[in-house]
Design a protein that fits this description.
By secondary structure, the chain is mainly beta. The protein has one domain. Helices cover 9% and strands 40% of the residues. The strands form 2 sheets. It has a 4-stranded antiparallel beta sheet. A two-stranded antiparallel sheet has the order 5-6. It is globular, with a radius of gyration of 14 Å. The model has no long low-confidence stretch (mean pLDDT 77).
Length: 95
């Protein structure tokens, strides 16, 4: 992430269960949102890995994480993780 100056990775279809946060090396953090039980053969879950820069901004913003989703036909079709960052002007965005 540092070499390419990327502040956030967004990963979909993680196949992981549950909502959790995990601290990674280099002061990065992974924030995950997924179903409490991963159905057999199903895909689901989203994760965001924040750079040390954004992790610091997230801490300064009050450690706020909001998880949500939209259920269609009994299945969650859209998973969402909202993260409050104190100073978003420092984010490196690449397309």
């Amino acid at each position: 992430m540092e070499r390419k100056k990327i502040d956030a990775y967004i990963i979909q279809e993680t196949h992981l269960e549950g909502n959790f946060m995990k601290y990674l090396t280099g002061d990065k953090i992974m924030i995950h949102h997924g179903p409490s039980i991963q159905p057999r053969g199903a895909r689901g879950g989203v994760a965001i890995i924040l750079s040390s820069n954004l992790t610091e901004g997230w801490k300064e913003g009050g450690y706020v994480v909001k998880r949500g989703g939209e259920t269609i036909g009994g299945t969650t079709r859209l998973m969402r993780v909202d993260i409050k960052i104190r100073d978003a002007t420092k984010i490196n965005i690449r397309k």
